[in-house]
Amino acid sequence: MNLLATLIRAEWLQLRREPAAWALLGSVWLVMLLALASGTSFTRSQQLSLAEVQRKEAEALQRAKAARPRSAGDTTGFAYYYDPTDLRGYAFNLHEAYAVKLPAPLSALAIGDADLLPAYQRVRADALPAEGEGYEHEHPLRLALGRFDLVFVVLWVMPLALLALVHPVLSVERQSRRLALMQLHAGGGARLMARVLAAGLLVRGLLPMAGLLALTALAALVSQAVPLAAALSLLGWMGMALAYLMFWLLVAAAVCVRASDPATAAFRLFAVWVVVAIVLPALTATLTRALAPTPSREAFVAQLRDAVDAVTRERLRHIEAFYNDHPELRPPNTPIAKLGWTSTYLIRQRALGKAQAPALAHFQDALNRQRRVHRQLSWASPLTLARRALVEASGNGLRRHEDFVRRANAHQAALAAWFLPRVSSAARREDETGCKGCAALYRFDDFDAVPRFEPR
Amino acid sequence: MAEVELTQQPVRAKAPSLWWLACTAAARAEATQHWRDGRSRLVLLISLVLSLVAAVSGFVDARDLHRQRAEAQAVEQQRWLGQGTKWAHSAAHYGIYAFKPITPLAVLDPGIESFVGSTVWLEAHKQNDFLYRPAQDQPELLRGGLLTPASVLLWVAPLAIVFLGFGAFAADRESGTLRLWRLGGARPSAVAAGRGAVLLAVGLGLWLPTAASAVAATAVFANGGGLQDGALRFFLLSAAAVTYLATWVLATLAASALCTRPRTALGLLTGAWVLVTLILPRAAVELARVAAPLPTAQAFRAALDTELGDPHQLADEAEAKQALLDQHGVKDVKELPVNWTGISLQRSEDRGNAIFDRHFGALFEAQARQSRWIDVLSLFSTPLAMVNLSSHLAATDLPHHVHYLQAAEAQRRLIQRVLNDELTRHPDVNGKRHESGVELWARIPAFVHRVAPLGTIEWPKAGVASLLLAAGAVLLTLTLALRRL
């Protein structure tokens, strides 16, 4: 133990005399702070975007509540579409609601896939999957190059800095023959080597990296990039980052033990970095695509369009089927073929949703299979594993997004289930009374009762 | 006798210069050394495997995507023609999807293709956003380091050059062999040229599979994938690739000549690689975003929707209608020899189109401003300049995407005009709308997109300058460094 303490002290004194090492650590910390600022900026802009969307939803609700209903006997054509106190107008057009995915407390640490996946989607009573919404206007080159966030620095830059600091450990002693001299005095080869290695890796590798992570964590809390309430989660995240860097320490240990001189150690370590940081992730991703190809969006669009055509051709059958299942909603006097557009719109959209469901399910199954294969193959790529873990922990990964999409789609189904019987009931009353387009039959003011999406 | 002797002097072949001899000897020695060195063989093997994998997977991906989109477009065209008999405005709302085609040079550099929508619905009243970014379906793969031929050129080839060349002069200096070959009369420039040629050959060898896959794609893609100047683009891309690789070769030799130890040269070069390849491009794009921000999606959509209002109701609708009635001397639209609905719909389209042009035009201009900033900042990062230039030449950059967007929108407007004109020519009869069939749908030509020829849309001028300046700067640095040897 005394020998280890002596070696540690010697390494520390040596490190203190290396201005290049301190310059490197200072540069890396600066890069980490810039990355943190970039992640914070992204999170803030996302929060602003979501606040804007929620404000629009609140304003639409206020406008609806403030609207005065049109006259009871008004039977004009398009008026209902712009009248929020008309159930049809509200359900088909004016109900503005959004499912939002709020940024997680650790979002600032890893932008991850958040810039590629929408953070909100409009939810509608017609329950069709929303596409094209929720994306911010970004320069596509920015998306293509990837983000400058803390995960990027931890995964790619910090290991390089770590390897630059630790590569002389043991190999310098071996090259200068000091190791042999020390072995003569200390008596015993392997134990001494282990202690020299441990001291070197501790002082030149683990402690500086842990220090950088700790300082960055402190900066994150002080700048409120991460709220104080999430300090424990932040500690966990930094722990994961340190675990990844410990992997690199082990790599360094394995290389330095055998390297005859620092130049050889540096070469081998950088070669390993290239393999781990570039080659393995690339091969993993390429193999995943080969084993589980990305499903074709073009075929998917064709299937959706086929469903639209099929439902349009068979619309009367679908409407009939709905009324067979819900005889209490069937208009008593008018045959199905003569029913108005508004009476059957949601019924047809429901049928369309069912007709498109197999295509959606098939596409999602293919995507899920690809993601499963990638997760399995990722065990061969430490960087891929680390990236996934850090991004998921920050809340900007695929799992949280998939959960959000599931919840948003469930909420859309709930909205459809809420509006459909109400519109159909009103249509039935319209048919019973014979008063076509009468506003009173579709009067609606129970805006607060409409199901709302609970963001989390 | 003397005259005969004078005129009969044997003709001697011109002896190769000492410089050339030193150059070729250095090249042979370098190549032999790398071939014998296990580390070098490993570097070459890994790099070559990556290059082949990227080339093959890039070719397969591009070929499959080209085929899928071409087939999808043909299916959509058949769907459009086979939509049966209906009111023309119903057909306008039924619409048709456009699928963005892939060019064969996307094999070399897919650019932004995965990060922009690939499909757009051309329908009445709306200039829709492009849907289905490929990146949204596979974010972990793309962000997790999926290999493309462009990344082999930008990342892998320079790394291979650095790994193989960092000890070119520094190792000689450290081992003392530098003095030996100087004593032998070999000039440093000759040795640098020979060793540099070997390194450049390695870089080009890694790029060759990619180039071959692009040529194969050109042969396989129908109609050249919409490219009118594919050969010129390929030639310029090749020239840019050679310049880029040569810059890394010169930088590696310069660092090796400047540093006293190989380890220092390796550290300097890997640090430079990390800085210019990984950090600076990302930082430059962030800076460009701050310098030329884009409007938020919400603000854009709100402004557009407010100005659009209701597509079926125009503020001056009544006035226009009255003018038409007066022109024909009738009191009711039913008495007109033309269909007012068709006229009204086209007026609505024209009004909407002007609004779309204003708002989308402003958005495209904002994106172009940001692109210009990125281009200027690429003066500080040759890899970023190469990214810009490579994707521009492969027709996979933002200006080419906007060109396609505008072409698709022009097709949408053509569809609406043809349908509305048909509607206008056929007033309702006894309250019954005129229905049209395949004769009308077929009147609209299928959408075929031709990629804008080089030079007709904005290109990365600063990127070209960056590439040439960087090459010049490292050449100067190498020249000065060699003098110090």
Query: What is the overall pLDDT average of chain B?
Result: 90
Report the total helices of chain A.
15
Question: What letter string, H or E per element, gives the SSE order of chain B?
Answer: HHHEHEEEHHHHHHHHHHHHHEHH
Mean pLDDT of chain A: 91
Low-confidence stretches of chain B: 1-5
* Distance N to C terminus of chain A: 51 Å
Spatial shape of chain B: elongated
CA-based gyration radius of chain A: 31 Å
List how many beta strands of chain A DSSP finds. Answer: 2
Gyration radius from CA atoms of chain B, angstroms: 31 Å
Helix content of chain A: 55-70%
| Envelope shape of chain A | elongated
What share of the residues of chain B does DSSP label as strand, in percent? under 5%
The computed structural class of chain A is mainly alpha
Tally of individual helices of chain B: 19
Q: How far apart, in Å, are the first and last alpha carbons of chain B?
A: 54 Å
Q: List low-pLDDT spans of chain A.
A: none
Q: What's the gist of this structure?
A:
The complex is a heterodimer of chains A (456) and B (485). Chain A is mainly alpha-helical.
Kindly describe this structure.
The complex is a heterodimer of chains A (456) and B (485). Chain A is mainly alpha-helical and 456 residues long. In chain A, 69% of the residues lie in helices and 2% in strands. Chain A has a two-stranded antiparallel sheet. Chain A starts with a helix and ends in a 23-residue tail after the last helix. In chain B, α2 (18-36) crosses α10, α7 runs parallel beside α11 and α7 runs antiparallel to α12. Residues 1-5 of chain B have low confidence and may be disordered. The interface between A and B is large, with 75 and 88 residues.
